[in-house]
Amino acid sequence: MTSGAAADVKGDDISSFPNGEHKNKDSEELDSGNHSTANSPDVPKLDQDQGGELANGAVPLGDKTLKLNIQPSVGEPFELQVNDNEMVQELYQTLLDRDSTCHRTCFSLHFNGQHLDSFIELKNVPDLVDGSTIIVIDEPFSVREARIHLKHVRELLRSGMGIDPMDVASAVDCSSFTFLQNINMQDKKDGKDGKSFDCVPPDFVLPGTKERSLAYLLPSPPPKNLLALRNISVSAYNPPPGPRKLKGDILYINVELCEKRLVHVTCCTKGFYVNASTDDVFNPLPSGQYRTVYHSLVELLNAVSPTFKKVYPLILKRKSERSLLERLPSTYPVFSWVSPALQGSELYSEDSTRSDELSQPFRVGYEDHLPGSIRDWNEELQTTFEMSRGSIMERIIRDRSYFKIHSDFINAAVRGATAVIDGNVIAINPADDRKTHMFIWQNIFFSLGFDVKDHYKELGGDAAAFAATAADLQGVKAFSTLENSKLCTLGMAIFDYRGYRVTAQSIIPGILEREQEQSVVYGSIDFGKSVVSDERYHGLLEAAARELRMMPHEVISGAEGNEKTLKLFTSYETKGIIGNDGRTYVLDLLRTMPPDVHFLENAEVGEAAKKAGYPRKLPHKLPAVRRELVDLFHENRCLQFIKVAAQHVRNAKDEKTEDEAVLAEAENDLGRVLVDITEGREPNTENSVIVAALAKAAVSAGSLRDDSLDIRFNPDCFSTLVRHAPGQSLERQRNLVIEICDFILTSQIPELVQQCLECVITPIDGEGLSEQLHMRGINIRYLGEFAKQVDPSSSFIRTLVFSELVCRSAKHIIRPFLNSVTAEQYSSCVSHLLSAVFGSGVGENVPMPNLTEKTNKKNNKKASGKKRAASGGWTTVTSASIWKSIVDECKSYFGYDLKASSLDALIESHGIQKISLLRRVCRSLGIQLAAKDYQLDSPNKTKSIFGEDDINNLYPVIKHQNPWTMDAKKLYGRGQQAMQLGQAREAFDCIAESVNLMTSVYGAMHAELAQALRCLARLSHVLHDSTDALNHQHKATMMSERVNGLDSGNTIMEYVNLAHFAFANLLINASLRLLYRARYLLLINYGEKHPIMAQIDSNIGVILFAIQEYESALKFLNSADSISKAVGEPKKLKTALITHMIARVHASRGDFRAALVAEKETYSTYVTLFGADNERTKESSDYLGILTQQAVTFQKKMMDANKSSSISQLLPIQIQAPSLSSILEVLNILNGFIIIPISPSFAMRPEPGSDSEEAEAEKSKALNQQLENEGLD
């Protein structure tokens, strides 16, 4: 392996490490985020055992641990601990990350005089044992290795510049923002002088604040850029002329030093040297001053530039201070809807390498590593998907390989889709209408979401074509979940970019060489008029149909007189194609799931649907239910079937309708028979009681069979385009489809509504709400039905649902404007439309901005005509017209009448927040705004809120399948079950192993891994291991920021959890800052009236109370109390705890009257919930007595002071500070941690003056002394 492969081992290739990390004490760059920096928790890492068996009894990931001696070509030898199932390739990453060797890329590894193949496992290297020495040998350069070396040096030097916010916001190289680095998580003191920071919260997070500025959303820039050189670029003298090639010249480079001089460098096979060329004269001979040849450009620059020599070590130091999770690329691009305002050279500087890479639309990023070839995405995807899955190691290798290829495909498709819409790719049918253009770029096929050749004319035209792509992707996801399937699906992704929908697909071998009629061997290409079938597909599709619950059915194909009956296992729309590689492909999977009859005109619907006003019309005729709903409905009917069958057997036994022997046999065999049925096997019984029970249960469950449970769906049963063969029991099949659609209205929506009203589920934004709907199989088109059920309530969910209705309706209205404007009008168009949506009088009697360049008088008339033609009508849009369009769209698509004359009227009646709605609209449409305060609630009704300069970019919104590792998912599920049973240790072991597996497959950066680490952190806390809890949660929080977004709902919850564990580790300052950040994000995402805000405010109030900031604590606790009473949990247990805390704060302030009022409220709540004899009620009653006694004592002192005209009798008022252990117990309750208490309840803490005060004071003395020593009192 030489330089190209060495530099190609990027951060995400650490996924091939069994635990995602090396055990290398000399190189802490590979600690999977555990590297201790100024911004990460200074706690020990969790040492997960490599030996033994996994929690599920499988073979462990690492068989053997080796300690190898590495002898680099520069620097001192070092020892490296690895697992023998790691690949040689991973040793290269170690060398590229070490400070002493990171500047060298062109080398190979040798052992016993033999070159090591980089793609073999260490255990397969002959004679490699513990203590062996591997030697690093420098290799000669080539053009490819030279370019890779340049890119690597550029990335190395950029470590001193900090992140480029413009590149990060646009997800260049899969970079993404993280704010957590700005919060000191290591020291218990923040200031250099050892003093604590000011605990007073910033004004923009205070309760009741109206400020909603976006200026605080992004992380602050690095303190100072470390500039080692000004620029590095490929010289214009390239390529080397023939005579110089024969002497080893490979590449000429220009380096602009900080000393403001230009150095011309030659890269030859031996390395780099300074040549004698100037800007005007080419002289490739070595310079007279610098004649040494260096094998690294960094070594050369150290010799020729004093500034570089001084700054380079500082760059390495700054690089080492960033944890691995900050530096690793994300798996998929994560675009930010907010980015810094572009201000000249401050945020955008000269970079020739970036210019070379990103200004060439044909480049995908792999050219230097795969020279002379274009990746065959289909072959790579299919080969890795078909890899063996027999053992756990085989499954890990297969899952890891498939996941890596899939993520590469998505990243390549993103660049291709943007290049297509930007006009940088030539269509393969350029003579056709632009909407019908198709493209091929880097072996990926791209098509636009428009109706090509009236294919969907009868189904809704462009609207149907748009919906078909999403339905097709759902089908691809469904087929990709099949185990051991021999059916192949295409790599697929959908991008919504600049108003266009772009579908990217891998290419079936040979499909472009044949006509469609010749390619399709299964399905129909003319909407069911003629259908073909192939025996080669029958066996494969039969197993798939059984798993996906699709009903095999027969259809009639051919013209009259030449008709034949064919059996289909899928919809007729599904096409089977046998590629030139011999694989059996299925595509056009848009009708994999049953149709949704509620949105089919003139379709028969159930009684519940009729009462709700169904069926309703959609813009297209391709509505289908979700896969999740099919699984949930089947589970529901299974339970119903089992319940009815068991009840029938019990009734037969009670009534003694059969012989006792038959009844006893029925009772004994029923369980086995029901297990067989639910697992898809035929019931094997002749017992008359069981047979009768099964028949009765089948009728109750709506089974397609009379003697057993059979819940499958014919996706074509409502189709009018295909002819059904006689004897298909269409009526029964249609009834089952009607029942599953009614299941949404009668079960799924009411259940979700109830859970939201009871605050069991608390989605923060529209994305979280959509996720909850989809998890229950509810399509977004039912959002209006959901709104009707939550409208009468005052719950937080009401605001969220109406906000999502407006957002999605606005998206439907704005999207057509975006795809009808030219490139130079995007900023003007988007800013005007956003101003119209969020303003009140925009566009009315206000002149539009000049959209075209100034023209002379002769061309004025012609230019204005072109302007009107190109504008797509957006210049005529006003606030009133776009709001009317939004209301009409909401009524027609979602079936809900907003009944509001304007957005401001809706906001006033439903509590919607403009900044939250703006965020959701921008994220839905892929609009990137400048980070600033937009004054959305400005009283100026006619001024445009947004200007052209406020629109920084437009980015693609991506939809694709997410491959997962089944073994890790099973372990994670087992861990969650153990948690529910209270088996914390077993749960910890299972989830720790699932984290181990996820890291092996996904690498160190994935959303599921963040979720598992959060769970692991909570379990560590429950098991009283606070340091591990903080460590795991810190990684989970940073990972969530990187892969979910800076301001996602998941990230907010990660911040709350991290604050809790920070407090448990006495990082009080960090805990408060984390909570302030969480509160700010929630203010942007939703507003104040949210149950999570009550949790955040109560956490802040309790911690401020602990450090005796009583005034600030009271503000946040009162806010938490008011929110909890308005939209909080119905049981009011936490509300009672909050009012008790308010009483404690008032008592500490000496305001005993207010304390009595608050504690009386707590007592009243406990009496209502538990009665007067409950322990909680008695504790509150005792505390009321203490407060009363204190109030009387204080009042007596006041009267004595008045008589004597002296206040000396009042001072000092002795107030005991609460102990940290008691504060942590309160936080555990507020944040939902169930822990075996190690001390009495905080509510039972005695007040000053009580008999047990001295004992309590002694008990908490140590912790309080530690708090006082930190300067936090």
UniProtKB/TrEMBL annotation:
Main location: cytoplasm
Lineage: superkingdom: Eukaryota
Keywords: Cytoplasm, RNA-binding
SUPFAM superfamilies according to UniProt: Hypothetical protein c14orf129, hspc210 (SSF103107), TPR-like (SSF48452)
Cellular compartment(s): Cytoplasm
Residue numbers spanned by region Disordered: 1-58, 848-868, 1245-1273
Biased composition (Polar residues): 1263-1273
Single GO MF descriptor: mRNA binding
GO annotations of cellular component type: cytoplasm
Segments crossing the lipid bilayer: none
Positions of the Clu domain: 350-600
Claim: Cytoplasm is one of the keywords in the record: yes
Compositionally biased residues, Basic residues: 857-868
UniProt GO BP: intracellular distribution of mitochondria; mitochondrion organization
InterPro entries: CLU-central, CLU_dom, CLU_N, CLU_prot, GSKIP_dom, GSKIP_dom_sf, TPR-like_helical_dom_sf
Keyword Ion transport assigned: no
Family assignment from sequence similarity: Belongs to the CLU family.
Biological role stated in the UniProt entry: mRNA-binding protein involved in proper cytoplasmic distribution of mitochondria.
Name of the protein in question: Clustered mitochondria protein homolog
